[in-house]
Amino acid sequence: MATLITKAVIPVAGLGTRFLPATKAMPKEMLPVVDKPAIQYVVEEAVAAGLTDVLMVTGRNKNALENHFDRAGELEAVLSSKGDDEKLEKVNYSTGLADVHYVRQGDPKGLGHAVLRAKMHVGREPFAVLLGDDIIDNRDPLLARMLEVQFALNTTVVALLEVDPSQTHLYGIATVEGTADEDVVKITGLVEKPAPGTAPSNFAVIGRYVLRPEIFEVLERTPPGKGGEIQLTDALQELATGPNWAGGVHGVVFRGRRYDTGDRLDYLKAIVQLAVDRDDLGGDFRPWLKEFARTLPGEGDD
Predict the structure, then answer these.
(1) pLDDT at position 299 over 70
(2) Which of 97, 114, 112, 104 is nearest to 51 (CA)?
(3) In this structure, what are the phi and psi dihedrals at residue 127, rounded to the nearest 5 degrees?
(4) Please, what's the b/e burial string for 163-181 (b: 16 or more CB within 10 A of its CB; e: otherwise)?
(5) Which residues of 240-274 are buried (b: 16+ CB within 10 A; e: fewer)?
(6) What is the pLDDT of residue 71?
(7) CB-based contacts of 111: which residues, under 8 Å, 6+ apart?
(8) What pLDDT is attached to residue 302?
(9) Which of 102, 262, 134 is nearest to 209 (CA)?
């Protein structure tokens, strides 16, 4: 029987080596996207979808994450004494955003292993997994739609994005069948980062999942796969292709705005895209950006 989902799991144990040296002493999830750390966008998305019980699967040197969602008494006192209510409200907002818990991953054995570390907290309930590298624009809700599909079908649900065929080797790729809903497909197979030219489709799995608790049983017997890690994709493949004892796997095809903060170039693009639409920044930033763009040399220019 379908149940109301209240728990979100956010794996944040990665080392963030693509952003060294910035991430030598700071978690990559705390890198600012305009004026909020990337992780706050993800937690806000979970809360907006009704998931207020958040478990972060952390690693070493991730104390800044816990500090961000905790009280900052000295800072609050200084802002209060100055009468700076606007900044004080922003500081307090992240503190009360959700009921946030933490568990260490320990060995870095992959995304599947990180999800498995949530078993004791989640129990026998469906739950959502949100990856911190993907920011979904709050004007294009994805997670709420996934929760709706999971409740209606009592299935496991993953988010899918149609990508250029030249990019399929960078993602887990799904084989799909259509359903009565235009944005919902049934997944009949999954492959993790297929070799160029071998992908079964261009439907890429992106960092949002709504999982039934049976995923833990599957992960416990999933051997290390690509990269020597326990791949969540391999466990989902079993659910998609095996006996329908766990409801199968469906995908919600997302056609909204998504910002990838896991790559340096895409991270910069994300900042610009979000900043130009901000009410408090866009009015000044857009004209400057247009003028700056005019000063750039075109392709083939010296």
Answers:
(1) no
(2) 97
(3) -155, 165
(4) beeeebeebbbbbbeeeee
(5) beeeeebbbbbbbbbeebbbebbeeeebeebbebb
(6) 87
(7) 11, 131, 229, 230, 231, 232
(8) 54
(9) 134
Domains of the chain: 7-262 (3.90.550.10), 263-297 (no CATH)
Cα–Cα distance between 126 and 245 in angstroms, integer?
Answer: 15
Question: What is the structure's pLDDT at 252?
Answer: 96
Beta-bridge partners for 251? 158, 185
- How many C-beta neighbours within 10 Å does residue 61 have? 14
- Per-residue b/e over 126-145, b at no fewer than 16 CB within 10 Å? bbbbbbbbbbbbeeebbbeb
Sign of torsion over alpha carbons 277, 280, 283, 285: negative
Query: What's the confidence (pLDDT) of residue 4?
Result: 81
Give the global pTM: 0.91
* Residue with the larger pLDDT of the pair 61 and 102: 102
Work out whether strand 32-33 and strand 36-37 pair parallel, antiparallel, or are unpaired: antiparallel
pLDDT at position 47 over 80: yes
Contact 147, 49 (CB under 8 A): yes
Residues 193, 226: contact at Cβ < 8 Å? Answer: yes
149 and 219 Cβ atoms separated by less than 8 Å: no
State whether residue 32 is helix, strand or coil. Answer: strand
- Tokens 């247009």 sit on residue: 290
Q: What is the pLDDT of residues 240-273, one digit of tens each?
A: 987 777 788 999 999 989 988 888 999 999 999 9
